[in-house]
Protein backbone atom coordinates (compact mmCIF):
# COMPACT_ATOMS: atom_id res chain seq x y z
CA UNK A 1 0.00 0.00 0.00
CA UNK A 2 1.26 3.40 -0.87
CA UNK A 3 3.05 5.04 2.00
CA UNK A 4 0.97 7.89 3.33
CA UNK A 5 1.62 11.52 2.56
CA UNK A 6 0.45 14.13 5.02
CA UNK A 7 0.12 11.69 7.90
CA UNK A 8 -1.40 13.35 10.94
CA UNK A 9 0.91 13.72 13.88
CA UNK A 10 0.32 14.84 17.44
CA UNK A 11 0.36 18.60 17.79
CA UNK A 12 3.57 19.42 19.62
CA UNK A 13 3.15 22.00 22.28
CA UNK A 14 -0.61 22.03 22.05
CA UNK A 15 -2.99 21.92 24.96
CA UNK A 16 -3.06 18.32 26.18
CA UNK A 17 -6.84 18.35 26.06
CA UNK A 18 -6.68 19.70 22.57
CA UNK A 19 -4.59 16.88 21.11
CA UNK A 20 -5.16 14.19 18.54
CA UNK A 21 -6.91 15.10 15.32
CA UNK A 22 -9.42 17.62 16.74
CA UNK A 23 -7.18 20.62 15.95
CA UNK A 24 -6.96 19.38 12.37
CA UNK A 25 -10.74 19.09 12.17
CA UNK A 26 -11.14 22.56 13.71
CA UNK A 27 -8.63 24.04 11.25
CA UNK A 28 -10.43 22.48 8.29
CA UNK A 29 -13.72 23.93 9.50
CA UNK A 30 -12.07 27.32 9.95
CA UNK A 31 -11.48 27.29 6.20
CA UNK A 32 -15.19 26.76 5.61
CA UNK A 33 -16.04 29.47 8.13
CA UNK A 34 -13.67 31.93 6.44
CA UNK A 35 -15.28 31.31 3.07
CA UNK A 36 -18.76 31.80 4.57
CA UNK A 37 -17.66 35.06 6.18
CA UNK A 38 -16.19 36.34 2.92
CA UNK A 39 -19.40 35.48 1.08
CA UNK A 40 -21.53 37.11 3.78
CA UNK A 41 -19.33 40.22 3.81
CA UNK A 42 -19.67 40.63 0.04
CA UNK A 43 -23.46 40.23 0.22
CA UNK A 44 -23.81 42.66 3.14
CA UNK A 45 -21.59 45.16 1.36
CA UNK A 46 -23.65 45.02 -1.82
CA UNK A 47 -26.96 45.31 0.04
CA UNK A 48 -25.69 48.19 2.19
CA UNK A 49 -24.35 50.01 -0.86
CA UNK A 50 -27.67 49.68 -2.68
CA UNK A 51 -29.66 50.87 0.32
CA UNK A 52 -27.29 53.65 1.41
CA UNK A 53 -28.75 56.47 -0.73
CA UNK A 54 -32.20 55.98 0.85
CA UNK A 55 -31.14 55.68 4.49
CA UNK A 56 -31.95 59.30 5.16
CA UNK A 57 -30.71 62.81 4.77
CA UNK A 58 -29.90 63.57 8.40
CA UNK A 59 -26.15 63.90 8.97
CA UNK A 60 -24.64 60.93 10.81
CA UNK A 61 -27.07 58.36 9.50
CA UNK A 62 -24.54 56.70 7.18
CA UNK A 63 -23.03 53.42 8.40
CA UNK A 64 -19.23 53.04 8.36
CA UNK A 65 -18.86 51.23 5.03
CA UNK A 66 -15.07 51.08 5.44
CA UNK A 67 -15.59 48.34 8.05
CA UNK A 68 -16.78 45.88 5.38
CA UNK A 69 -13.48 45.80 3.42
CA UNK A 70 -11.61 45.62 6.73
CA UNK A 71 -13.62 42.54 7.66
CA UNK A 72 -13.04 41.03 4.22
CA UNK A 73 -9.29 41.55 4.52
CA UNK A 74 -9.29 39.83 7.94
CA UNK A 75 -11.36 36.96 6.52
CA UNK A 76 -8.96 36.45 3.62
CA UNK A 77 -6.08 36.49 6.08
CA UNK A 78 -7.80 33.84 8.20
CA UNK A 79 -8.41 31.74 5.09
CA UNK A 80 -4.72 31.82 4.19
CA UNK A 81 -3.63 30.91 7.73
CA UNK A 82 -6.26 28.17 8.13
CA UNK A 83 -5.14 26.52 4.88
CA UNK A 84 -1.42 26.69 5.67
CA UNK A 85 0.10 23.32 6.57
CA UNK A 86 3.21 25.15 7.78
CA UNK A 87 1.31 26.40 10.83
CA UNK A 88 0.36 23.92 13.57
CA UNK A 89 -3.34 23.18 13.61
CA UNK A 90 -3.73 24.30 17.24
CA UNK A 91 -2.09 27.64 16.35
CA UNK A 92 -4.45 28.06 13.40
CA UNK A 93 -7.39 27.55 15.76
CA UNK A 94 -6.01 30.20 18.14
CA UNK A 95 -5.73 32.60 15.21
CA UNK A 96 -9.32 31.80 14.35
CA UNK A 97 -10.49 32.65 17.86
CA UNK A 98 -8.58 35.95 17.77
CA UNK A 99 -10.20 36.65 14.41
CA UNK A 100 -13.61 35.99 15.97
CA UNK A 101 -12.97 38.62 18.65
CA UNK A 102 -11.96 41.22 16.05
CA UNK A 103 -14.96 40.42 13.88
CA UNK A 104 -17.27 40.87 16.87
CA UNK A 105 -15.75 44.31 17.41
CA UNK A 106 -16.30 45.20 13.74
CA UNK A 107 -19.86 43.81 13.80
CA UNK A 108 -20.56 45.79 16.99
CA UNK A 109 -19.33 49.02 15.44
CA UNK A 110 -21.42 48.42 12.34
CA UNK A 111 -24.47 47.73 14.50
CA UNK A 112 -24.12 50.59 16.98
CA UNK A 113 -22.77 53.28 14.64
CA UNK A 114 -26.13 54.95 14.03
CA UNK A 115 -27.18 56.95 17.11
CA UNK A 116 -29.83 55.60 19.45
CA UNK A 117 -32.60 57.93 20.57
CA UNK A 118 -34.97 57.73 23.53
CA UNK A 119 -37.69 55.96 21.57
CA UNK A 120 -35.42 53.37 19.91
CA UNK A 121 -35.84 49.64 20.38
CA UNK A 122 -33.18 46.96 19.97
CA UNK A 123 -32.20 46.72 16.28
CA UNK A 124 -32.52 43.02 15.55
CA UNK A 125 -30.53 40.12 16.95
CA UNK A 126 -26.97 40.87 18.06
CA UNK A 127 -24.46 39.76 15.39
CA UNK A 128 -21.97 39.00 18.14
CA UNK A 129 -24.17 36.23 19.49
CA UNK A 130 -24.68 34.80 15.99
CA UNK A 131 -20.94 34.69 15.28
CA UNK A 132 -20.01 33.18 18.65
CA UNK A 133 -22.73 30.52 18.62
CA UNK A 134 -21.83 29.54 15.06
CA UNK A 135 -18.23 28.91 16.10
CA UNK A 136 -19.31 27.07 19.25
CA UNK A 137 -21.44 24.52 17.39
CA UNK A 138 -19.38 24.24 14.19
CA UNK A 139 -15.75 24.18 15.36
CA UNK A 140 -14.54 21.78 18.11
CA UNK A 141 -12.91 24.15 20.63
CA UNK A 142 -12.28 23.26 24.29
CA UNK A 143 -15.23 24.60 26.33
CA UNK A 144 -13.15 26.77 28.67
CA UNK A 145 -11.36 28.39 25.76
CA UNK A 146 -14.70 28.97 24.02
CA UNK A 147 -16.13 30.59 27.16
CA UNK A 148 -13.15 32.97 27.40
CA UNK A 149 -13.49 33.85 23.73
CA UNK A 150 -17.25 34.43 24.09
CA UNK A 151 -16.62 36.73 27.05
CA UNK A 152 -14.10 38.77 25.05
CA UNK A 153 -16.56 38.96 22.16
CA UNK A 154 -19.29 40.22 24.48
CA UNK A 155 -16.92 42.85 25.86
CA UNK A 156 -16.05 43.89 22.30
CA UNK A 157 -19.74 44.49 21.58
CA UNK A 158 -19.98 46.68 24.68
CA UNK A 159 -16.73 48.44 23.69
CA UNK A 160 -18.13 49.12 20.22
CA UNK A 161 -21.20 50.78 21.75
CA UNK A 162 -18.95 52.85 24.04
CA UNK A 163 -16.78 53.91 21.08
CA UNK A 164 -19.82 55.19 19.20
CA UNK A 165 -20.89 57.21 22.25
CA UNK A 166 -17.60 58.66 23.51
CA UNK A 167 -15.52 58.40 20.33
CA UNK A 168 -17.97 59.16 17.53
CA UNK A 169 -20.11 61.49 19.61
CA UNK A 170 -23.46 59.71 19.47
CA UNK A 171 -25.86 60.45 22.31
CA UNK A 172 -25.72 57.89 25.12
CA UNK A 173 -28.68 55.52 24.97
CA UNK A 174 -30.86 55.23 28.10
CA UNK A 175 -29.75 52.66 30.70
CA UNK A 176 -32.54 50.22 29.92
CA UNK A 177 -31.55 50.21 26.23
CA UNK A 178 -27.94 49.46 27.23
CA UNK A 179 -29.31 46.49 29.16
CA UNK A 180 -31.34 45.15 26.24
CA UNK A 181 -28.46 45.68 23.85
CA UNK A 182 -25.87 43.82 25.93
CA UNK A 183 -27.87 41.30 27.99
CA UNK A 184 -28.04 38.74 25.12
CA UNK A 185 -24.25 38.62 25.15
CA UNK A 186 -24.26 37.38 28.76
CA UNK A 187 -26.70 34.62 27.83
CA UNK A 188 -24.58 33.89 24.78
CA UNK A 189 -21.52 33.12 26.94
CA UNK A 190 -23.33 30.38 28.85
CA UNK A 191 -24.93 28.90 25.71
CA UNK A 192 -21.59 28.96 23.86
CA UNK A 193 -19.87 27.17 26.75
CA UNK A 194 -22.36 24.30 26.89
CA UNK A 195 -22.67 24.05 23.10
CA UNK A 196 -18.89 23.83 22.66
CA UNK A 197 -18.69 21.35 25.52
CA UNK A 198 -21.13 19.06 23.74
CA UNK A 199 -19.40 19.41 20.36
CA UNK A 200 -15.91 18.98 21.82
CA UNK A 201 -16.85 15.96 23.91
CA UNK A 202 -18.44 14.40 20.83
CA UNK A 203 -15.20 14.96 18.95
CA UNK A 204 -13.21 13.50 21.85
CA UNK A 205 -15.43 10.42 21.80
CA UNK A 206 -14.71 9.95 18.10
CA UNK A 207 -11.00 10.50 18.70
CA UNK A 208 -10.90 7.91 21.49
CA UNK A 209 -12.84 5.48 19.34
CA UNK A 210 -10.09 5.91 16.75
CA UNK A 211 -7.33 5.20 19.26
CA UNK A 212 -6.08 1.65 18.86
CA UNK A 213 -3.67 0.93 21.68
CA UNK A 214 -0.43 2.83 21.03
CA UNK A 215 -1.62 3.68 17.51
CA UNK A 216 -3.88 6.39 16.18
CA UNK A 217 -6.06 6.13 13.08
CA UNK A 218 -5.25 8.69 10.41
CA UNK A 219 -6.88 7.99 7.03
CA UNK A 220 -9.38 5.34 6.02
CA UNK A 221 -7.89 3.35 3.15
CA UNK A 222 -10.91 1.18 2.44
CA UNK A 223 -13.95 -0.61 3.80
CA UNK A 224 -15.47 -4.01 3.19
CA UNK A 225 -18.38 -6.03 4.41
CA UNK A 226 -16.78 -6.94 7.73
CA UNK A 227 -14.50 -4.06 8.59
CA UNK A 228 -12.17 -1.26 7.64
CA UNK A 229 -8.52 -0.65 6.83
CA UNK A 230 -6.85 2.53 8.09
CA UNK A 231 -3.49 4.18 7.76
CA UNK A 232 -2.22 4.70 11.29
CA UNK A 233 0.77 5.98 13.20
CA UNK A 234 2.41 5.08 16.48
CA UNK A 235 2.03 7.71 19.18
CA UNK A 236 5.75 7.94 19.90
CA UNK A 237 7.54 6.16 17.03
CA UNK A 238 7.86 7.68 13.58
CA UNK A 239 6.57 4.51 11.94
CA UNK A 240 3.49 4.38 9.72
CA UNK A 241 1.32 1.28 9.92
CA UNK A 242 -1.91 -0.18 8.61
CA UNK A 243 -4.71 -1.12 10.99
CA UNK A 244 -7.36 -3.65 10.13
CA UNK A 245 -10.39 -3.43 12.39
CA UNK A 246 -13.82 -4.94 12.74
CA UNK A 247 -16.59 -3.16 14.61
CA UNK A 248 -19.20 -5.41 16.25
CA UNK A 249 -21.98 -3.19 14.89
CA UNK A 250 -21.07 -4.33 11.36
CA UNK A 251 -21.45 -8.00 12.16
CA UNK A 252 -25.13 -8.48 12.92
CA UNK A 253 -26.16 -10.44 15.99
CA UNK A 254 -23.95 -10.86 19.04
CA UNK A 255 -23.16 -14.51 18.39
CA UNK A 256 -22.05 -13.83 14.84
CA UNK A 257 -20.03 -10.80 15.95
CA UNK A 258 -18.14 -12.76 18.58
CA UNK A 259 -17.44 -15.56 16.11
CA UNK A 260 -16.01 -13.22 13.48
CA UNK A 261 -14.05 -11.22 16.05
CA UNK A 262 -12.64 -14.52 17.25
CA UNK A 263 -11.56 -15.26 13.71
CA UNK A 264 -9.73 -11.97 13.42
CA UNK A 265 -8.04 -12.45 16.77
CA UNK A 266 -6.79 -15.82 15.61
CA UNK A 267 -5.60 -14.23 12.37
CA UNK A 268 -3.53 -11.72 14.31
CA UNK A 269 -2.08 -14.37 16.61
CA UNK A 270 -1.32 -16.72 13.73
CA UNK A 271 0.32 -14.07 11.56
CA UNK A 272 2.34 -12.63 14.44
CA UNK A 273 3.85 -16.08 15.07
CA UNK A 274 5.33 -16.19 11.55
CA UNK A 275 8.73 -14.70 10.79
CA UNK A 276 9.13 -15.17 7.04
CA UNK A 277 9.99 -11.85 5.37
CA UNK A 278 7.35 -12.76 2.80
CA UNK A 279 4.56 -12.82 5.40
CA UNK A 280 3.13 -9.44 6.38
CA UNK A 281 4.39 -8.38 9.82
CA UNK A 282 1.86 -7.89 12.62
CA UNK A 283 2.94 -5.42 15.31
CA UNK A 284 0.03 -5.44 17.74
CA UNK A 285 -3.62 -6.38 18.22
CA UNK A 286 -6.38 -5.85 20.77
CA UNK A 287 -9.81 -4.38 21.46
CA UNK A 288 -10.60 -0.67 21.23
CA UNK A 289 -12.79 1.22 23.70
CA UNK A 290 -15.81 0.90 21.39
CA UNK A 291 -15.43 -2.89 21.27
CA UNK A 292 -13.83 -3.05 17.83
CA UNK A 293 -11.14 -5.67 17.35
CA UNK A 294 -8.03 -4.42 15.57
CA UNK A 295 -4.57 -5.50 14.62
CA UNK A 296 -1.67 -3.42 13.41
CA UNK A 297 0.37 -4.42 10.37
CA UNK A 298 3.25 -2.97 8.42
CA UNK A 299 2.21 -0.42 5.82
CA UNK A 300 3.21 -1.65 2.38
CA UNK A 301 4.12 0.22 -0.77
CA UNK A 302 3.09 -1.35 -4.03
CA UNK A 303 0.03 -3.23 -5.28
CA UNK A 304 -1.59 -6.64 -5.02
CA UNK A 305 -1.33 -9.12 -7.86
CA UNK A 306 -5.03 -8.81 -8.70
CA UNK A 307 -4.56 -5.10 -9.36
CA UNK A 308 -1.30 -5.70 -11.19
CA UNK A 309 -2.82 -8.10 -13.71
CA UNK A 310 -6.07 -6.18 -14.05
CA UNK A 311 -4.23 -2.94 -14.82
CA UNK A 312 -1.16 -4.19 -16.68
CA UNK A 313 -2.05 -7.59 -18.14
CA UNK A 314 -0.57 -11.07 -17.69
CA UNK A 315 3.01 -11.37 -16.43
CA UNK A 316 5.98 -13.02 -18.12
CA UNK A 317 6.76 -16.55 -16.98
CA UNK A 318 10.08 -15.61 -15.36
CA UNK A 319 8.37 -13.00 -13.21
CA UNK A 320 5.59 -15.41 -12.26
CA UNK A 321 8.18 -17.93 -11.05
CA UNK A 322 10.02 -15.19 -9.16
CA UNK A 323 6.82 -14.24 -7.31
CA UNK A 324 5.65 -17.80 -6.68
CA UNK A 325 8.98 -18.69 -5.06
CA UNK A 326 8.43 -15.93 -2.49
CA UNK A 327 4.87 -17.10 -1.80
CA UNK A 328 6.24 -20.62 -1.26
CA UNK A 329 8.72 -19.25 1.30
CA UNK A 330 5.86 -17.79 3.36
CA UNK A 331 3.62 -20.85 3.02
CA UNK A 332 6.44 -23.27 3.82
CA UNK A 333 6.90 -21.65 7.23
CA UNK A 334 3.14 -21.40 7.83
CA UNK A 335 2.57 -25.06 6.96
CA UNK A 336 5.48 -26.08 9.17
CA UNK A 337 3.82 -24.21 12.04
CA UNK A 338 0.55 -26.04 11.47
CA UNK A 339 -1.21 -23.22 9.60
CA UNK A 340 -3.21 -23.53 6.41
CA UNK A 341 -4.04 -20.18 4.83
CA UNK A 342 -7.17 -21.34 2.91
CA UNK A 343 -7.55 -18.11 0.96
CA UNK A 344 -4.52 -17.81 -1.31
CA UNK A 345 -5.46 -15.58 -4.24
CA UNK A 346 -3.93 -12.64 -6.14
CA UNK A 347 -5.61 -10.03 -3.92
CA UNK A 348 -3.84 -11.56 -0.89
CA UNK A 349 -0.40 -11.48 -2.51
CA UNK A 350 1.08 -7.99 -2.31
CA UNK A 351 4.12 -6.91 -4.29
CA UNK A 352 6.21 -3.79 -3.90
CA UNK A 353 9.32 -2.33 -2.36
CA UNK A 354 11.07 -3.52 0.79
CA UNK A 355 14.23 -1.56 1.42
CA UNK A 356 15.96 -1.33 -1.95
CA UNK A 357 14.44 -4.53 -3.33
CA UNK A 358 11.60 -4.41 -5.83
CA UNK A 359 9.01 -7.09 -6.59
CA UNK A 360 9.16 -8.21 -2.97
CA UNK A 361 6.08 -10.31 -2.25
CA UNK A 362 4.10 -10.45 0.99
CA UNK A 363 1.36 -12.94 1.80
CA UNK A 364 -1.60 -11.22 3.47
CA UNK A 365 -4.84 -12.04 5.24
CA UNK A 366 -4.50 -15.15 7.35
CA UNK A 367 -8.11 -14.57 8.43
CA UNK A 368 -9.30 -18.00 7.26
CA UNK A 369 -6.30 -19.79 8.72
CA UNK A 370 -6.73 -23.38 9.88
CA UNK A 371 -4.79 -24.40 12.98
CA UNK A 372 -3.51 -27.95 12.66
CA UNK A 373 -2.43 -28.25 16.29
CA UNK A 374 1.20 -27.13 16.27
CA UNK A 375 0.33 -23.70 17.61
CA UNK A 376 -1.88 -23.15 20.63
CA UNK A 377 -5.50 -23.30 19.54
CA UNK A 378 -8.32 -21.19 21.01
CA UNK A 379 -9.56 -22.39 24.38
CA UNK A 380 -13.18 -22.41 23.22
CA UNK A 381 -13.41 -25.56 21.12
CA UNK A 382 -16.88 -24.73 19.86
CA UNK A 383 -15.81 -21.33 18.51
CA UNK A 384 -12.73 -22.89 16.95
CA UNK A 385 -14.88 -25.46 15.20
CA UNK A 386 -17.24 -22.77 13.95
CA UNK A 387 -14.37 -20.79 12.49
CA UNK A 388 -12.42 -23.59 10.83
CA UNK A 389 -14.82 -26.47 10.67
CA UNK A 390 -14.37 -29.14 8.05
CA UNK A 391 -17.64 -29.22 6.16
CA UNK A 392 -17.83 -25.43 5.89
CA UNK A 393 -17.07 -23.85 2.52
CA UNK A 394 -14.73 -20.95 3.24
CA UNK A 395 -12.59 -19.19 0.67
CA UNK A 396 -12.81 -17.59 -2.75
CA UNK A 397 -14.60 -19.68 -5.42
CA UNK A 398 -12.14 -18.89 -8.20
CA UNK A 399 -9.23 -20.25 -6.16
CA UNK A 400 -10.77 -22.84 -3.85
CA UNK A 401 -9.29 -26.36 -3.71
CA UNK A 402 -11.61 -29.23 -4.71
CA UNK A 403 -11.53 -30.80 -1.25
CA UNK A 404 -12.56 -27.53 0.38
CA UNK A 405 -15.30 -26.98 -2.18
CA UNK A 406 -16.65 -30.40 -1.31
CA UNK A 407 -16.46 -29.76 2.42
CA UNK A 408 -13.31 -31.81 3.01
CA UNK A 409 -10.33 -31.31 5.28
CA UNK A 410 -8.09 -28.28 4.91
CA UNK A 411 -4.44 -29.22 4.44
CA UNK A 412 -1.30 -27.55 3.06
CA UNK A 413 -2.12 -29.16 -0.30
CA UNK A 414 -5.19 -26.89 -0.51
CA UNK A 415 -2.95 -23.82 -0.40
CA UNK A 416 -0.78 -25.29 -3.17
CA UNK A 417 -3.87 -25.79 -5.33
CA UNK A 418 -4.86 -22.17 -4.76
CA UNK A 419 -1.32 -21.07 -5.60
CA UNK A 420 -1.63 -23.02 -8.85
CA UNK A 421 -4.80 -21.05 -9.58
CA UNK A 422 -2.87 -17.85 -8.87
CA UNK A 423 -0.12 -18.92 -11.29
CA UNK A 424 -2.79 -19.63 -13.92
CA UNK A 425 -4.24 -16.14 -13.47
CA UNK A 426 -0.85 -14.43 -13.57
CA UNK A 427 0.15 -16.21 -16.78
CA UNK A 428 -3.13 -15.86 -18.65
CA UNK A 429 -5.12 -13.08 -17.02
CA UNK A 430 -7.98 -15.59 -16.64
CA UNK A 431 -9.43 -17.66 -13.83
CA UNK A 432 -9.09 -21.43 -14.17
CA UNK A 433 -12.87 -21.63 -14.68
CA UNK A 434 -13.42 -17.97 -15.39
CA UNK A 435 -16.71 -17.89 -17.30
CA UNK A 436 -18.79 -19.65 -14.68
CA UNK A 437 -20.93 -18.36 -11.82
CA UNK A 438 -19.51 -18.59 -8.32
CA UNK A 439 -21.23 -21.82 -7.29
CA UNK A 440 -20.49 -23.34 -10.71
CA UNK A 441 -16.81 -22.49 -10.23
CA UNK A 442 -16.76 -24.45 -6.98
CA UNK A 443 -18.33 -27.43 -8.76
CA UNK A 444 -15.88 -27.15 -11.65
CA UNK A 445 -12.89 -27.13 -9.29
CA UNK A 446 -14.23 -30.33 -7.80
CA UNK A 447 -15.12 -32.28 -10.96
CA UNK A 448 -13.93 -30.67 -14.21
CA UNK A 449 -10.47 -30.81 -15.80
CA UNK A 450 -9.13 -27.33 -16.55
CA UNK A 451 -7.46 -26.33 -19.79
CA UNK A 452 -3.69 -25.86 -19.46
CA UNK A 453 -2.44 -22.25 -19.17
CA UNK A 454 -0.71 -22.72 -22.53
CA UNK A 455 -4.17 -22.87 -24.14
CA UNK A 456 -4.59 -19.15 -23.48
CA UNK A 457 -1.02 -17.82 -23.45
CA UNK A 458 2.51 -18.70 -24.45
CA UNK A 459 3.84 -20.62 -21.43
CA UNK A 460 7.05 -22.59 -20.96
CA UNK A 461 6.16 -26.32 -21.13
CA UNK A 462 7.83 -27.13 -17.80
CA UNK A 463 5.93 -24.34 -16.01
CA UNK A 464 2.73 -25.30 -17.81
CA UNK A 465 3.03 -28.89 -16.55
CA UNK A 466 3.88 -27.72 -13.01
CA UNK A 467 0.80 -25.51 -12.84
CA UNK A 468 -1.35 -28.45 -13.93
CA UNK A 469 0.24 -30.59 -11.19
CA UNK A 470 -0.81 -27.99 -8.64
CA UNK A 471 -4.35 -28.15 -10.08
CA UNK A 472 -4.65 -31.90 -9.60
CA UNK A 473 -7.96 -32.92 -8.02
CA UNK A 474 -6.36 -35.31 -5.53
CA UNK A 475 -4.16 -33.60 -2.91
CA UNK A 476 -1.60 -36.42 -3.09
CA UNK A 477 -1.05 -35.73 -6.81
CA UNK A 478 0.11 -32.18 -6.15
CA UNK A 479 3.63 -31.20 -5.04
CA UNK A 480 4.32 -32.68 -1.62
CA UNK A 481 4.93 -29.34 0.09
CA UNK A 482 5.57 -25.67 -0.52
CA UNK A 483 9.29 -26.41 -0.37
CA UNK A 484 8.86 -29.13 -3.02
CA UNK A 485 6.91 -26.71 -5.20
CA UNK A 486 9.68 -24.12 -4.81
CA UNK A 487 12.26 -26.69 -5.86
CA UNK A 488 10.20 -27.61 -8.91
CA UNK A 489 9.87 -23.93 -9.82
CA UNK A 490 13.64 -23.53 -9.69
CA UNK A 491 14.08 -26.59 -11.89
CA UNK A 492 12.18 -24.84 -14.67
CA UNK A 493 15.23 -22.57 -15.03
CA UNK A 494 12.98 -19.53 -15.46
CA UNK A 495 13.69 -17.72 -12.20
CA UNK A 496 16.99 -16.07 -13.29
CA UNK A 497 15.14 -14.50 -16.21
CA UNK A 498 13.61 -11.87 -13.93
CA UNK A 499 16.16 -9.70 -12.12
CA UNK A 500 16.09 -6.62 -9.92
CA UNK A 501 17.00 -4.57 -12.97
CA UNK A 502 13.89 -5.85 -14.74
CA UNK A 503 11.78 -5.12 -11.66
CA UNK A 504 13.22 -1.63 -11.22
CA UNK A 505 12.56 -0.80 -14.86
CA UNK A 506 8.95 -2.04 -14.63
CA UNK A 507 8.20 -0.15 -11.41
CA UNK A 508 9.80 3.01 -12.77
CA UNK A 509 6.99 3.13 -15.33
CA UNK A 510 4.22 2.33 -12.88
CA UNK A 511 3.14 4.44 -9.94
CA UNK A 512 2.26 2.16 -7.03
CA UNK A 513 -1.42 2.16 -6.19
CA UNK A 514 -2.45 1.35 -2.62
CA UNK A 515 -5.52 -0.83 -2.23
CA UNK A 516 -7.52 -1.69 0.86
CA UNK A 517 -8.27 -4.99 -0.87
CA UNK A 518 -4.64 -5.96 -0.35
CA UNK A 519 -5.22 -6.00 3.38
CA UNK A 520 -7.97 -8.56 3.25
CA UNK A 521 -11.26 -6.65 2.90
CA UNK A 522 -11.97 -7.61 -0.66
CA UNK A 523 -14.30 -9.88 -2.58
CA UNK A 524 -13.69 -12.95 -0.44
CA UNK A 525 -16.80 -15.10 -0.54
CA UNK A 526 -17.57 -17.01 2.61
CA UNK A 527 -20.03 -19.86 2.17
CA UNK A 528 -21.00 -21.49 5.43
CA UNK A 529 -23.65 -23.87 4.16
CA UNK A 530 -22.75 -27.55 4.58
CA UNK A 531 -21.33 -29.16 1.47
CA UNK A 532 -23.58 -31.43 -0.50
Descriptors for this entry?
Transferase(Phosphotransferase), domain 1; 2 domains; three-stranded antiparallel beta sheet; about 525 residues; disordered N terminus; alpha+beta; disordered C terminus
Protein model, in words:
- A hairpin with a 4-residue loop joins strand 2 (215-223) and strand 3 (228-234).
- Helix 5 runs antiparallel to helix 6 (175-209).
- The model is unreliable at 1-20, 52-60, 371-392, 513-518 and 520-532 (pLDDT under 50).
- The protein folds into 2 domains: 22-209; 303-530, Transferase(Phosphotransferase), domain 1 (Orthogonal Bundle).
- The protein has 532 residues and is α+β, with helices and mostly antiparallel strands.
- 42% of the residues are buried.
- It contains 16 helices and 13 strands.
- A 6-stranded antiparallel sheet has the order 1-2-3-4-6-5.
- It has helices spanning 22-51, 67-83, 89-112, 127-138, 143-167, 175-209, 254-272, 305-312, 317-336, 381-388, 402-405, 412-428, 438-447, 461-470, 482-491, 500-508, and strands at 211-212, 215-223, 228-234, 240-246, 282-287, 293-298, 302-304, 339-340, 349-354, 357-363, 370-371, 392-395, 525-530.
- It is 48% helix and 13% strand.
- The radius of gyration is 33 Å and the shape is elongated.
Amino acid sequence: MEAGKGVLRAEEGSDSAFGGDLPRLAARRLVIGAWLTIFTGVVVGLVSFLRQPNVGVREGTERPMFLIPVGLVLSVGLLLVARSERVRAATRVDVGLAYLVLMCLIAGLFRHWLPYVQSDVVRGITPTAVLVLFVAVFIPVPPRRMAITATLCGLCDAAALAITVWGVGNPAPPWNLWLWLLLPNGVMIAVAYFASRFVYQLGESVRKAKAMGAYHLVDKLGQGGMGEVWRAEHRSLARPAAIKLVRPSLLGNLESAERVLGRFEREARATAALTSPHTIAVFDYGRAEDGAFYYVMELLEGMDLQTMVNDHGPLPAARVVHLLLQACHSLDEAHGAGLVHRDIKPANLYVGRVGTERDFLKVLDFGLVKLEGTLEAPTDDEDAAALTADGALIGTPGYIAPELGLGGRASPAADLYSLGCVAYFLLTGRLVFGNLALVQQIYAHGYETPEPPSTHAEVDPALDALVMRCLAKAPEDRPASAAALAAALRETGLAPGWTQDHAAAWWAEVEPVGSAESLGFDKTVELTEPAT
